[in-house]
Specification:
two-stranded antiparallel sheet; 6-stranded parallel beta sheet; alpha/beta; 17 helices; 364 residues; 52% helix; single chain
Length: 364
């Protein structure tokens, strides 16, 4: 995991000399509002002004970022002669900023070409500043984008790591309750899916357990509809999302993430919630393959399988209906889904279709 992580309260201001080592001009990639509301964009602009580093703000990133928008960001970076890129936000802006760095340095790659074209020149250096406690994009070599046809698909590898990550949880303090829950579910799914991946090892599983140990007890408090986490609890959630990101680097994700994309694409379900829908079924499969590992995971959460799955279902109970025709379409689409092979059992596209029918079929 090659990212240089600089963490703690005030870490941006206390380590601003990092930016001087990267160049004299940069592109700031972010969404329309979260970077401003969190205070991160204001802090970055103030520091860049102090250091006489020129910058342009590219704030066109939406949830589930489009390859076309990221390509436009890369073009903008070339036009201003950017030496580096700063990504500010949750998973979408951070993932987008990784793609922008690739597009900026490789003019021959446009839009969906990022999935097929060879990266010839090294991407621009990237600095990321997270504002949500969920994706762990700060420390992962993955960028999840949305193709022109509306389907989400990831790109990954050495070219998709940031050079520096400023990890200051204070930028998560303004996140609304609903987003806090969804991002916590995403981080918990990362911890579980990566732990029971065939690629997991002892060290990565320790990070999974640390993340689960911290996230689940706080997530449980959200059963109280009036609950909002303290700043200290938000600190815990944020750092735990990075622990889960470390585990994700080794283990990757299983079928909840692969199947969850469909719910986000077709029903606008937030990413973390969409993945959590399938997490109870994943844990059932995990228990078949690794009962001792499951005992360890649930013990870390200070619960058992029944209570774990019950809580996840409460937060991911969706009032949507999916037709048999659409489920059959998913079944064909998922025939080559890599996430199934990265799951603990031989769960496949046929099993996924049966699960979708159980959960969402219109005549069930």
């Amino acid at each position: 995991m090659p990212v240089n992580i600089i963490s703690g309260n005030g870490c941006l201001e206390n380590n601003k000399s990092v930016f001087l080592s990267l160049g004299k001009t940069c592109l700031i990639v972010c969404g329309h509002s979260s970077a401003k509301k969190s205070g991160a964009l204001g802090d970055v602009k103030k520091i860049l002004d102090e250091l006489n580093i020129k910058y342009t703000v590219f704030d066109k990133i939406t949830e589930n970022p489009l390859t076309a928008t990221c390509c436009e960001g890369g073009k903008t970076a070339r036009e201003i002669g950017a030496d580096f890129v700063i990504g500010i936000g949750g998973g979408s802006p951070l993932d987008a900023s990784k793609a922008v760095c690739v597009y900026a340095a490789n003019e021959h790659i446009t839009d969906d070409g990022i999935y097929t074209e060879k990266i010839i020149r090294e991407p621009l250096p990237l600095v990321v500043i997270g504002t949500t406690a969920g994706t762990g994009s700060e420390v992962s070599g993955v960028s999840v984008l949305t193709r022109k046809d509306g389907r989400k698909q990831s790109v990954s590898g050495p070219n998709y790591y940031a050079k520096y990550a400023f990890a200051d949880p204070k930028y998560t303090y303004t996140v609304p309750r609903s987003v806090t829950v969804s991002t916590a579910l995403d981080a918990l799914a990362h911890a579980a899916e990566s732990m029971f991946s065939p690629r997991s090892d002892f060290l990565s599983s320790r990070f999974s357990l640390m993340a689960a140990e911290n996230i689940f007890p706080i997530l449980k408090k959200f059963e109280d509809e009036g609950y909002m986490p303290s700043n200290h609890e938000r600190d815990i959630l944020y750092y735990s999302s990075l622990y889960a990101g470390f585990a994700l680097n080794k283990g990757g994700t299983g079928f909840p993430h692969g199947m969850g994309y469909a719910l986000t694409e077709d029903h606008a379900i937030p990413h973390g919630t969409a993945c959590a829908v399938f997490l109870p079924a994943f844990m059932e499969e995990a228990e078949k393959a690794d009962p001792e590992g499951c005992k360890e995971f649930f013990a870390a959460c200070k619960t058992d399988k029944w209570h774990f799955c019950d809580l996840i279902r409460k937060f991911s109970n969706l009032n949507i209906v999916i037709s048999e025709e659409k489920i059959s379409e998913y079944e064909c689409r998922w025939e080559t889904l890599k996430n199934f092979k990265n799951s603990p059992t031989s769960f496949d596209n046929h099993g996924a279709a049966r699960l979708m029918r159980t959960l969402f079929l219109e005549d069930r």
